[in-house]
Amino acid sequence: MPLGPLVKTTRLGALARKEMRQIMRDRQLIFILFLLPPIQLCIYGYALSPDVNHLRMGIIDHSSSAVSRGFVSALAENGVFDVLESGGSESALSDKVRGGRLDVGVVIPSELERNFKSKKETSIQILLDGVDANTAGIASAYINQILMTYDRLIRTGSQKAFQRAAPQVSFVYNQGLVSNWFFVPGVIALILNLVSTLVSSAAVVREKDSGTLEQLLMTPVSSLQILTAKIIPLSLLLLVNVSVSLMFSTFLFQVPFRGNLLVFFGVSLLYIIVGISIGIFLAAVSENQRQTLLTSFFVNLPVIQLSGAISPLESMPPFFQWLSLIDPLRYYCSCVRAILLKGAGLEEVWRDVLVLAIFAVVLLWLSSTRFREQLK
Questions:
Q1: C-alpha span between 307 and 222 (Å, rounded)
Q2: Which residues pair with 126 in a beta bridge?
Q3: Please, what is the angle between helix 261-284 and helix 328-337, to 10°?
Q4: Whether the Cβ atoms of residue 201 and residue 58 lie closer than 8 Å to each other
Q5: What is the pLDDT of residue 159?
Q6: What number of CA atoms fall less than 13 Å from residue 171's CA on the CB side?
Q7: For the domain bounded by 55-156, which CATH number is listed?
């Protein structure tokens, strides 16, 4: 039996063990690998939410009627608005909204009840702080919906209005419309992208700065073995990172896991290779750790923004939707959400997995080529 393959395997194992020991001795890398992801998941999981609650509202009721008091009660009871002191006049209310002390101002005209009884339309003045356009839009929609619902209830009384067709709406996969179920899987992908690129680039740059790479070149190992020995332990540790993130999302945010665990970890391993390849490439084109960190900002930020991890792809302009097709994180986000929330198997996500595999092969080839050129 030839000893060549056995010797190569032994060398690769020794290099991989050396890489693992170096990583475990580096406190900064340990922090990035195991402590930073749960912290980021908790921060992003709670902070990234489209839900709007406890908006400060001031109301001036010129009508002081049963109809207006019922409308005010409907606004205050839904938990979205907190009714605060309005200032007593329309000018004071306007000043408070303009000064940021109130988010919403409502002015109810004196003719509200009279117009209601005579079935005439009444204009209710709404003042909104438009600095945060998203919050202002949601608040306006809430007020309109509450007004329509209250108007319909008091007109029909206890009797149900006759409808020729009554829509029956049911929500699939997320019956409670919990916003965290959309954001948390995206955050898992976001964190894996950041950690995989940062840790892999830091590991390579550290050896460049310390001169260890030059010492490795004096040993009877090839550049491919050096690169493979770096990828294997990082991949194993990053799979542990994914497991921790998954546990936090399941137990802390109650995000369901309805899919196959092996499929999930297989897809995650593919993206780990993508992230490590990006990190090695960044380290190979950079001279030092500071340059690598600055370069990573120009790569990671567009990758995250175009992936749909934070905001839906459908909300982007058409040009950026097309541009997102060359973003590998987009396909990983799609797979993670499908596996966790829909229970999708490989037969449903195979197209995204195939594209992700192509990205992994191409990026690994590019990074390894650049890495080998640097070692010559």
A1: 36
A2: 106
A3: 160
A4: no
A5: 40
A6: 7
A7: 3.40.1710.10
